[in-house]
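Case study.
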Amino acid sequence: MTLDRSATMQDLARLAGVSVATVSRALSGKPGVSSATRSAIARLAREHSYTENLPARALSSGRTGRIAVTLPNVQAEYFARILAGAAQVIHDGGFSLVLETTQHEPGRQSDAIQRFMKMGVDGALLLLPAESDREISALYDSGFKFVIIDPIDQVTAPLPWITSTYAMGARRAIEHLVDLGHRRIALITGEPYLFSTKERLHGVRQALEQAGIPLEPGLVRESRYTDPAGAYEATLDLMRLPEPPTAIFAFNDRLAFGTLRAAHALGVAVPGTLSVVGFDDLEAAELVSPGLTTVRQPLSTMGSTAATMLSQLINEQDPPAMHMQLATELVVRHSTAAPR
Amino acid sequence: MTLDRSATMQDLARLAGVSVATVSRALSGKPGVSSATRSAIARLAREHSYTENLPARALSSGRTGRIAVTLPNVQAEYFARILAGAAQVIHDGGFSLVLETTQHEPGRQSDAIQRFMKMGVDGALLLLPAESDREISALYDSGFKFVIIDPIDQVTAPLPWITSTYAMGARRAIEHLVDLGHRRIALITGEPYLFSTKERLHGVRQALEQAGIPLEPGLVRESRYTDPAGAYEATLDLMRLPEPPTAIFAFNDRLAFGTLRAAHALGVAVPGTLSVVGFDDLEAAELVSPGLTTVRQPLSTMGSTAATMLSQLINEQDPPAMHMQLATELVVRHSTAAPR
DNA sequence: ATACTGAACGTAACCGGTTGCGTTCGGCGG
DNA sequence: CCGCCGAACGCAACCGGTTACGTTCAGTAT
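After joint prediction, the assembly is written out as follows.
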């Protein structure tokens, strides 16, 4: 004979002949309960399939057991994989995960931060947050616990943030092309104001400088990371130059896909006439032909690392570092070769 | 001068010189408050940036304002796009979204349903739930509100479930191949016990029957939807037959990608020697070469439709239908042509 | 035997809202 | 002028836990 509503602590207390306080202590493993009572209560809880009322616990304890993750969108494999890594750790830590997609609407975003964040959750993972450094600092000052993954810009507040080694990855990509013998290397960048873009550019500059190759402004085109069509146009444009590049480093894989399509449309052989390197190593990178040489980002690890740091923060432990940069890795496939 | 903690209703009540009850009624738009008082309270709330305490509201009202979404994983574009569609509606409805990835672990899943479901949220969207029909029915009987997307098997309980028109889509795919002149058409299916697999098979049979073509068992191979490598092997196998097929219908795009790679590895021209059709229309379908002819599923719409139905359920309205099948659409690209 | 101590448990306040019911009061019909 | 009524608001219980503090009582030192 089960109750129509699920059992509460009062029910268990009545059944066990003790007070609610004792039940609470017994179930949460706190001291002050004899082992006999404790096991009796545990048994009753099992028999009557007691389920804690999360809102009630949250209200009285101040901890909700929930972690929010905000991200621009979830369709993009890039974000989805970071989210997946974070979700694993969040669930394993006994938290539940509140998802907030911002769709790059600044209004909704600060709404999320101002309202939703302040009371629904114990902390948050902010993925590519649209907030300015000022807003971020304000949020930090308010005492809210959060970790930033892939910030728009350098973070100055003393809070943890996570990126991958953009500069190093870009450097490896260029070095790879240089090693193959390329000297006219074009770039298709993403949004120029993004930290990740600046870092990639930095890495490119380092590598070119070391190789003694000047960076020709005419070989640098700008698109948006989400817009392969921009890369498509840029590639058409680049290949129509009097002296076209022999290699293109696209700042992410989606852009690289646009480049590959453009090359295909132009009848330009890849890697015969044109080498192409991407960044991210999305699943599709090995599906396209030729398989795309690209810089792999440890996306899932970025998510799980961030989640780990956040739970340390929530548990009042000091995180191991303020800025963690996770290693990237060059994956050589078939879109790069020596220039003819 | 702001408070260190965010303002509560008690604060507003004190400031406005009224009781908490009045503040509650004013803020939630309930009757019994003069318009003067109402606007005064609204102004105070704004000035002191009052934020409702969600757990408290949930505790007293019984409604949490949260909707759970459970799915096997979030990396897969298939699920991610359904999730995205659902997230949009959930947020627009003023709910927040609790994400639970099940990773196909049955233990964790029923845990989610038994515990987490029962009190943290007002309802749930179950994406490809691993539960048996019996468990689903039990959950339904417990009064919990939920909608199923893409069930493992036919749902018998009187609850809403959503699929796309698998049979019709598969039928169109076969008809397309038949129209092109193919008569030896191979299949690479997913898990045979899945509703979606059975339905696709059903559609295939209908189309073949209508065309007067027998379904040769030797041309039907089985893989798993998540395993392109299985399709790769199956394709190698099929093309080594004494009389190889002239077309392969892979039951989803990931499998089709495996087939394309196998064809490439074998030096079999697509669509010259072999036509390939997929199912889903993932982003990569137009990135691979040749562009994949496939059956488009309205993934985002499946998610948003499900979320809409769920909120109707939560608001005690009757959903328009128990089983909604959303239209699929054949997208013809360049992986299909007449057999040589 | 007395006083002290600590384990085990109860009491009650509290978290921040929601809501049924009671109270006040101004206006209006008779 | 009395009585009635509804609008506007307060009171207080309640949702289901957590936790500081008080109480009981058995065991032990003196």
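Observations recorded in class. Chain A has three domains: 9-52, 63-164+299-322, 166-298. Chain A has twelve helices and twelve strands. We will return to this complex in the next lecture.
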